[in-house]
Amino acid sequence: MSQLEELKRMVNLNDGRIDRRIFWEDWIYQLELEKLFAKSWLFVAHESQIAKPGDFLTTYMGQDNVIVARHKDHTIHVFTNSCTHRGNRICFADRGQARQFNCNYHGWAFGTDGALLGMHEEDHYEGHINKSDWGLQNARVETYKGLVFACFDDEAPRLEEFLGDFRWYLDVILDQTEEGTEFIGGTMKNMFNANWKFGAENFIGDSLHVGWTHASGAKAVSKGGAVPEYMPVDPESFHANANGHGWEGGVDGLGTLALVSSGDPTLVEYFEKERSNMAKRLGDLRARKLYGSVISATVFPNFSFLPGINTMRTWLPKGPRQFELRSWTMVNKNMPDHIRDIVQKASSLTFSPSGIFEMDDGENWENATLSNEGVVTRRQSLHYGLRVGTSRRDDPEFPGNISRPMYSDVNQLAFYQRWMDFLTADSWGDIPKVR
Amino acid sequence: MDKDTKVQVMSESEQMLLWYQVNKFYSAEARALDEEDYVSWFNMLAEDLQYWMPVRESLFRKDEKPDSTKNMNHYNESFQSLQLRVARLHSGAAWSEDPRTRYRHLISNVEVEVGEKSGELKVLSNTLVYRNRLEREEYWLVAKREDVLRQVGGSFKVVKRKITPDFSCLLSKNLNVFL
Questions:
Q1: Cα torsion at A337, A340, A344, A345 (round to 10°)?
Q2: Distance between CA A31 and CA A295 in Å, rounded?
Q3: Dist CA B109 CA B145 (whole Å)
Q4: Mutation choice for B interface testing from A94, A312, A318 by most B CBs within 10 A
Q5: In terms of CATH architecture, what is B3-165?
Q6: Where do the domains of chain A lie?
Q7: Which CATH class is domain A42-143?
Q8: Which residues contact A176 (CB under 8 A, 6 or more apart)?
Q9: Per residue in A363-403, pLDDT tens?
Q10: Are the CB atoms for A144 and A174 separated by under 8 Å?
Q11: What is the pLDDT of residues A18-76, one digit of tens each?
């Protein structure tokens, strides 16, 4: 059996079975880098992080380190952070302000658009180098309501098409106000000895872990009360997925806001007043029933967020058994300082490395990955069969593929279906545009 | 009288006594944290506590700015919010802390100055926190601590603590410890 045939059998969508090797094998990880991360649109920044010309930050697309920079003409450029002379990294700072990037090795200088501008002691070349041939590799760059995405594949569809129906859900957090959103300063980074997909699949649909994994955090915020009071058990809660992106959540409009308020009514009262303005932009369904509910979401492949808690994060792969999590808190630009402060503290208290919820996730993901070092252990497939096959595309309320209630493996399987679409495709021509 | 003058008017033996008392306090605090004895720990903290640990970044020297609580923080806590965090551990449902993490807090390089308010001290120290968990998990955290201590009875309470970590990327899956 060819490797490709073997791979295709590792995700069984009908039975909801997944082969553990997709979380372990080096050859599958290398396929992910080449066929997924080098082909897909990937989140790289929020526009507020690079607001002014010369502002830049460094991040990763797959394992490719890239510079995301605002050029002097205000356009955003994303290009490889590796000198075309000997390959050294040209920028070592996480973020900052620069007119150009000078390589430390021989002083080759690159612009904020990735173009080679010149080099130290250029005279030695006596004109025998065509500098326009030796710029850095630029990715395609597009934005969606403040979020900056980049893609290294010329054949990929436009970002809007890649996001597809999922834009309707993204707008719930990105389009509440005319002024839009921004990230607060700085980047939280930490490492997990786990496969990156465990983070992405947890945020795309794993409501089932909340009541158990996070029982300790829930008891802490509810002062020992019923666990977990804020989780919607109502049958209207749902999974939605589109093109491999997914959203899971309730429709009570309150669960997350109550959770992060810890008894202080300020935040809930603020949003109750804001909802009529939000409804003008988003409609009643999204402004009153979705925003504020317990929700988590993933933009395929590795960008996740929690509306209400407002942590935004990307799971950066560092090998099959290691990833780096980078996270930020997002706020509306028009939020008053005291509301911004509540959101920021709530996000740190709940979902950050020290957060009372997030603290319990890492151990699960690490050991779900590392137990597969056992060859016999690795032979046994995993159960992803909860409410498999229950999603419908023609829901009267919600776009995308919808399944109710939110306790299921439906979105997780949609994620792995999309993952398989990429890994088994030779080019974007083989990848279904709509899923 | 400025601060330098105040320290100067203390005799050397008075300064030594103060340094000894602060070190004794830090050893007891470190032991409380090592043993997850949060009842004792909260007794060492003032109720108007500000407990802050900003996120560090690697920036070009020209882009460095003073830390601000308005940026991302590992901790930006009050006495009450620290109690909420500890309540998680005491919930009986913190599965990922059972078996327990083995902690060791080592405090060194203590420098004591007179504080800005009377009855307060400004103290610098370094902390090295060792964590070991399950079979082979081992993590080291190194940080600078800038404290304001209030003299209460024969001992102290921490009024302010700023923890400046030496990592920009936390090399572990969580930060399940106070520094």
A1: 60
A2: 31
A3: 10
A4: A94
A5: Roll (3.10)
A6: 42-143, 165-430
A7: mainly beta
A8: A274, A277, A278, A281, A282, A287, A291, A332
A9: 999 999 999 999 999 999 999 999 999 999 999 999 999 99
A10: yes
A11: 999 999 999 999 999 999 999 999 999 999 999 999 999 999 999 999 999 999 999 99
Report long-range pairs for A1-8 (Cβ below 8 Å, ≥24 apart). Answer: A3/A27, A4/A424, A7/A31, A7/A420, A7/A423, A7/A424, A8/A420, A8/A424
CA closest to B72 among chain A residues: A186
- CA nearest neighbour of B141 among B121, B167, B174: B167
In this prediction, residues A300-326 reach a mean pLDDT of 97
Q: Which of A339, A344, A236, A333 has its CA nearest to residue A294? A: A236
Q: Which residues contact A379 (CB under 8 A, 6 or more apart)?
A: none
Annotate B22-53 with three-state secondary structure: HHHHHHHHHHHHHCCCHHHHHHCEEEEEEEEE
CB neighbour list of residue B50: distance below 8 Å, 6 or more residues apart: B77, B78, B159, B160, B161
The residue to which tokens 């470190």 are assigned: B30
Which chain B residues have a beta carbon less than 8 Å from that of A224? 87, 91
ipTM of predicted assembly, 2 dp: 0.95
Nearest by CB to residue B96, choosing from A95, A190, A360, is A360
pLDDT, one tens digit per residue, over A247-306 is 999 999 988 988 888 778 899 999 999 999 999 999 999 999 999 999 999 999 999 999
Q: Which of A96, A362, A365 sits opposite B59 (nearest CB)?
A: A96
β-pairing verdict for B169-170 and A11-12: unpaired
- The residue ranges of every structural domain in chain B are 3-165
Of 3.40.50.970, 3.90.380.10, 3.40.30.10, 3.20.20.370, the CATH number of A165-430 is 3.90.380.10
pLDDT for residue A261: 83
Q: What is the mean pLDDT of residues B122-141?
A: 97
* Contact between A185 and B68 using a beta-carbon 8 Å cutoff: yes
Mean of pLDDT values over A400-412: 97
Element (H, E) at B104: strand B102-114
Q: Is B12 on the interface with A (CB under 8 A)?
A: no
Report the alpha-carbon angle A227-A233-A236, nearest 5: 155
What's the confidence (pLDDT) of residue A264?
Answer: 84
DSSP state of A244: T
Distance CA(A246)–CA(A168), nearest Å, equals 11
From chain A, pick out residues whose CB is under 8 angstroms from the CB of B75. 348, 354
Single out the residue of A10, A58, A59, A15 nearest to residue A31, CA to CA. Answer: A10
Q: A408, exposed or middle or buried, with CB in 10 Å at 0-12, 13-18, 19+?
A: buried
pLDDT band at B7 (very low <50, low <70, confident <90, very high): low
